[in-house]
Amino acid sequence: MKNFLAILVVATLATPVLVRAADKAKSSPPSSPSGSPIYVFTNDDGTTHSYSSVYEAGGTQGAPTLTYQQSINTTGLGIGGGFFGTPRLAMLPSSSAQCLYVSDAGTGDIAAVNIAAQTLAGTFMGSSNDVGTSNGIGLALNQTYLYAGYTLSNTIATFAVEPGCQLNFLGDISVTPLNGGYIAGMALHGNILVVTYIDGSIQSFNISNGIPISNNDEQNSAGYSQAYFPDGVDITSDGHWAIFADASVPPVIEVSDISSGKLAPTAMYLLGEATRSITPGVNSTTVRLSPDGTLLYVGNSQTGYVTAAFFFNGTGKVLNGCISPQLKNFYNPWSYVGDLETRDTTGSGNVLYVAEFGSSIGILNVMSSGTTCTMTEAASSPVTDDLSPGLLNIKVFPPRPY
């Protein structure tokens, strides 16, 4: 697998009626607040053909399922791997989102998918300078622009988002990681785009006018001196904090205050440091905030676990929470934890989907009281993705609302 981690290693007569009504409610398939179905989309990243496969959420309360629906041919090619934290799928964080964008690193294009019709709407290229064949093409999106980070060329391309999911290439910029690395994670909120370079350095850009302009805040993270290198990144709903998931042997999260419009020096948190019950997790390259912003889901990519940590938005602090059991079939046949996505758009998200490198999607039930949490793997997990040689990225519709 092409990844920097190879280097890092690292409950009268009416009563029966009421009971039956409750049982019926429990057996109904999950749906979004609007009542519409919930779908999981993949980036199959195939090297001889590439698709976005579609699964519908179902099952009963506490027993979630995913059922394969169809696969949408992106007409491009992937690379079957790459950086864990690179987001190869993008959609607006709204139940009214109409478009899903899927990057094809092998052919260098971005495929647009009409979400409602589940059909291809077109494919789009940046410039000849934009190459992501080494470790993928990351995507970040707002109402007006889509940003694509090309790992090999270290360029960020800007596309205008047009009606019908169409894209219009506007230009690209070159970036220079401090320690010779490559673009990995990307996330945006408002006018700020935050980027990780998988070499310990991070940077942010002002995107108020479309083409990114550096905020002149490029810096090494707090973990850099210990070889803890930010890979994945997420941003809180209010845009106050950028949260980095590090490529590191112990699971490490770093947090930067971005309320000023640029990156402040990061604060570092070692998951499991205070509670030794959370030691099975190794590495922490993917991170996803729960819809209510209280839980951080962290992919322990090299040992097949998912860690949850409590996040406090008022202070940006991170405290230990819980860890899943090792996910089924780890290393037989799948081998790394990729993207993490919640099923529901409120609270903890209730169900967590896990991209498993090696063609499957794991399903975890989540329970959280605000001070304690548990994660258990569903009986239906994992669900196979037969068209992917190395699944790393998934996206849920309707999406988390930020």
Give structural notes.
- This protein has 402 residues and is mainly β.
- Helix content is 4%, strand content 44%.
- It has helices spanning 5-8, 14-27; strands at 39-43, 51-60, 63-73, 89-90, 99-104, 109-114, 119-125, 137-141, 145-150, 155-162, 166-174, 186-189, 192-196, 201-206, 213-214, 219-220, 229-235, 241-247, 252-257, 267-270, 286-289, 295-300, 305-312, 317-323, 336-342, 351-357, 360-368, 373-377, 383-384, 393-397.
- Strands 12, 13, 14, 15 and 16 form a 5-stranded antiparallel beta sheet that branches.
- Strand 2 (51-60) and strand 3 (63-73) form a beta hairpin.
- Residues 1-27 and 274-278 have low confidence and may be disordered.
Unreliable residue runs: 1-27, 274-278
User: Distance N terminus to C terminus?
Assistant: 31 Å
The main pleated sheet reads as: 5 strands, antiparallel
- As a whole number of angstroms, the C-alpha radius of gyration is 20 Å
The proportion of residues in beta strands is 35-45%
Structural class: mainly beta
Which word captures the global form? globular
Mean pLDDT across residues: 91
Number of helices: 2
Number of beta-strand segments: 30
The residue fraction in helices comes out at under 10%
